[in-house]
Amino acid sequence: MYAKVQELWKEYLAKHGSWGKTDPRKGLSAEVTRRLQQLDLILEKLDQARTPSAEEKEQSRKDEEHFLKTRKQFASGEITSEEFAAGLRRKSPEEIQRLIRRTNDVWLFTETFYCIAWRLREVLNIRKPASFPNLQKIDGLGIRCVRNLLIDHPEDQKDKPNYEQTMTDTNEGPVLKSLEVRID
User: Fold this and answer.
1) Cα–Cα distance for residue pair 169/163, rounded to 1 Å
2) Rounded to whole angstroms, how far apart are CA atoms 174 and 13?
3) CA distance linking residue 5 with residue 138, whole number of Å
4) In whole angstroms, what is the distance from residue 179 CA to residue 35 CA?
5) d(CA 21, CA 181)
6) What's the number of CA atoms in the CB half-sphere (13 Å) around residue 163?
7) Model confidence over 146-165: pLDDT tens digits?
8) Which helix (H) or strand (E) segment is 175 a member of?
9) Are 15 and 46 in contact (CB under 8 A)?
10) Which pTM value belongs to this model?
């Protein structure tokens, strides 16, 4: 995902990156390269963790089909909750453990993404004398808000600190510390 950004960074270094061994930008530029690689790897791992197996997809499809077919009958009282639940396959303990593991992986990779993205932002915005020439300041408001107010310093939220330990995985991606779920 960050291949284009990595290419742009290589072009930038080819144009501006002839720093000597004692210039801090030499090490900082290497850190930028590494951080971009890490972000790419994290997004790859996050995508893997968010992708259910073919078997899980098929079972979800069957469960959804059953739910859509019987929900009105259940709501109207035509079928009992037991009859409704009988059409849904129960997960084995192993399947539950795999789901918990995948959820934990999604959470870990999501938080790690924001922490590394924040550090990348900090390195690119470093001040003189180690600043990178011809780079504009990177604000990264979304990165800053998630990293500061949701992950590292929830106590700093002005209105109400959010200490929730929740994560919801939506079609749009993981949502940390969400207090509600929207279904479209």
Assistant:
1) 18
2) 33
3) 14
4) 31
5) 51
6) 2
7) 888 778 887 877 787 778 78
8) strand 173-176
9) no
10) 0.78
Left if phi > 0, otherwise alpha if psi is -120 to 50, otherwise beta: which for 165? beta
**Which pair of tokens denotes residue 162?**
């959010």
Reported as a single tens digit per residue, the pLDDT across 50-68 is 998 888 888 888 888 888 8
Could you tell me the CA-to-CA distances from 99 to 52, 102, 104, 116, 128 in Å, in that order? 9, 5, 9, 26, 48
Distance between CA 6 and CA 36 in Å, rounded? 7
| Encoded tokens for 147 | 């990293």
Structure tokens of 6?
Answer: 């990595």
Question: Residue 174 has what DSSP assignment?
Answer: E
CA distances from 109 to 171, 180, 181 (A): 16, 21, 21
- Which residues are bridge partners to 167 per DSSP? 176
Neighbours of 30 (CB within 10 A): 12
Q: Which residue has the tokens 């009282």?
A: 77
Q: Which two structure tokens, joined as six digits, stand for 128?
A: 């003189």
Instruction: Give the number of other Cβ atoms within 10 Å of residue 73's Cβ.
Output: 13
The token duo for 174 is: 């993981």
User: Which DSSP letter does residue 179 get?
Assistant: S
